[in-house]
TrEMBL record:
Protein name: Efflux transporter periplasmic adaptor subunit
Any one of the GO CC terms: cell envelope
Name of a matching Pfam family: HH_MFP_RND
Species, as recorded: Thalassospira marina
UniProt key word Coiled coil: yes
Record's keyword annotation contains Coiled coil: yes
Domain Multidrug resistance protein MdtA-like alpha-helical hairpin: 118-186
Coiled coil location: 155-182
Amino acid sequence: MSSKSKLRYAVGAVAIALVAAGVAGVVPVPFIHAEEQQEAPAPAQAPKPVPATVAEIHNQNITRWSSFSGRLEAIDRVEIRPRVAGAIESVHFREGDLVKQGDLLFTLDPAPFETEVARAEAAVFSAQSRLKLATTELDRGNELWKTRVITRTVLDQRQETKQNAEADLRSAQAQLRSAKLNLGYTEIRAPISGRVGDIRLTPGNLVAAGANSEILTTLVSVDPIYATFDVNEQALLLAMHQNGEPSVDAVQQIPVQLSSDFIGPDVIKGHVQMIDNEFNPRSGTIRVQAVFDNTRGRLVPGQFARLELGQASAGKAIMVAERAVGTDQDKKFVLVVNPQNVVEYREIRVGGEQDGLRIVTSGLEEGERIVVEGLQHIRPGMTVAPEVVSMDRRSMVDAGDEAKGDSRS
């Protein structure tokens, strides 16, 4: 076989081998590998930061308040009783009226007392006449004694007669004043300004006089008014703090405010009138009495009220929006945004509420940032894009309104 024939044979053999390999599935291998490369997933991308409304924590000057329940009391309470006996002639008020000191409440029949006044006036006139006669007789006796027309004994008798006449006149005048007082007592007037109660006895009834007589009505003062409540030791020490330490002299500076269903959303400010001199060993509380203005008469003695006792001087505290505080079973927490804008879970302890913000007693430091809106959408470990607002009531309300608008859209 020639060399050219051998070359053609070799090329043909290679071609046959390639065809056979294609039938056996050898050739498509590079194409299957390309398909596998196309189906391989792309590398994972980092999640985008979640928008979050945050606020920076600052210490604020506040007055911390402690809340109590108390009862209102009238400063003055008077039982209206007659000072003279007689028959009730008329009543000059309506039950529940507000009256002023000196207003006429009841009138007793004055006729018997007018008679006594007339009799006393006659007795005074008679005593004056006797004194005038005795004075004249004594003057004449002095002239006669100079010439010894009368004896010394007669002159002494005339002096005694004049002295007796003077005493009789003073007695008669005292009787007249007493009769006029009794006549005046037939007009029973309000001894204080306040609100009258129910009418116990109506016109026509006979009444006795004195402390054991029947009560005609009651009268309680309205303005100002007392509120009495019991305060525990811790709250009292907090209220009496002045310049960082408890001070007895701070009592006059302790603020107190009152609210009640009777006055709606209004709050009435007052001041501490008295702190009792000892704690009750059973309850561990001490009685505190505060006084409030009641010019409009909306507060009624005997009703319950809500009292808040503040500090004598303001202190510093961290305050956060109520909506920024979450509840985890029996714990309170906030979501802190660290310098890398990563959210962290932080347990806190909270105190009272003031100006729409909650006092934080532990768990936060000044300068830290917390999430104040949308806690339900943010989890610890997330990276957020913070939108900073100030930690005050107005900003919190605005932020809340915006969040509600976003949720509705």
